[in-house]
Design a protein that fits this description.
heterodimer; A: alpha/beta; Rossmann fold; 7-stranded mixed beta sheet; 35% helix; globular; B: 67 residues; mainly beta; Ubiquitin-like (UB roll); 5-stranded mixed beta sheet; two-stranded antiparallel sheet
Chain lengths: 200, 67
């Protein structure tokens, strides 16, 4: 039987510290995952604040390092490795080599493709949790998780960002937290102890 | 041949298909895809060369932007 305390010994990698990555990282830190490796090259802009876990006075700062600061304010016991770098085919292996689970948290589909193809080529068995389809609002019933071997997909799989379809805090947050929830289920060996306790 | 496509059994008349032939038959016209055959990633420049055989487990996933 897996225990929540086991999370202290786990390492989770998060590729991207935007809408998905920042919210997923905070959820995992609050749940007690002992070590997070977070990577992003971007800086915080005002337009990010509609969904990303940053504050107005942090505009202009680098995302990865600032997310580390925010997580340390929530739970200083969590070790956070912040990497200020643009992830690519060549550096993904070194940065995330020690993680138990990797979370894909990129914005653009071409970047998602690069990290997913690279990660699955390097680590054919390691769990990879990706986010696909979360633009707009409403449609709660469409958002779900589906597993394909070691690849876990969270999202509605159809709602792409574009004109009139912005990424917004509620749906992006739902998918980010669904990714975090999937990570916990993987790390705790598929058990759903907490849920069963609540039902009883 | 019989394969598992996206977790479901599927059946095709030919004994083997290239990835591109499978995409054409299934009418998967999306630009941005992730494709795996028995866990191995198949990149776009290999779609016409990579061959799917009877019993293979194939995953074809469509990527869209947002995050």
């Amino acid at each position: 039987m897996a225990h929540l305390e086991d999370l202290r010994d786990k390492t989770v990698g998060i590729a991207g510290c935007g809408g998905l990555g920042s919210n997923c990282a905070v959820a995992l830190a609050r749940a007690g995952v002992g070590h997070l490796i977070i990577a992003d090259f971007d800086i915080i802009s005002e337009s990010n604040l509609n969904r990303q876990y940053y504050f107005y006075d942090q505009i202009g700062k680098p995302k990865a390092e600032t997310l580390k600061e925010n997580i340390e304010r929530i739970n200083p016991a969590i070790r956070v490795t912040a990497v200020n770098i643009k992830l690519d085919e060549l550096n993904i292996k070194d940065i995330f080599d020690e993680v138990d689970v990797l979370v894909e948290a990129f914005d653009r589909s071409d970047q998602k493709q690069i990290i997913i193809e690279t990660a699955l080529s390097i680590w054919a068995e390691r769990p990879l949790v990706i986010g696909i389809g979360m633009a707009g609002w409403g449609g709660n019933q469409l958002i779900h998780m589906k597993k394909y071997g070691n690849l876990y997909i969270c999202g509605d799989r159809i709602s792409e960002i574009g004109p009139g379809m912005p990424p917004l805090a509620p749906r992006v947050g739902i998918v980010a937290n669904m990714q975090a929830n999937t990570v916990l289920q993987i790390l705790l060996n598929g058990s759903r102890v907490g849920v069963q306790k609540n039902i009883n | 041949m019989k394969i598992i496509l996206n977790n479901r059994p599927d059946e095709f008349t030919p004994e083997k298909l290239t990835v591109q032939e499978l995409l054409d038959i299934k009418n998967f016209t999306f630009k941005m895809l992730i494709i795996r055959i028995n866990g191995e990633i198949v990149k776009k420049d290999q779609y016409s060369k990579a061959v799917i055989h009877d019993g293979d487990e194939v995953i074809v996933l469509h990527l869209i932007s947002g995050g």
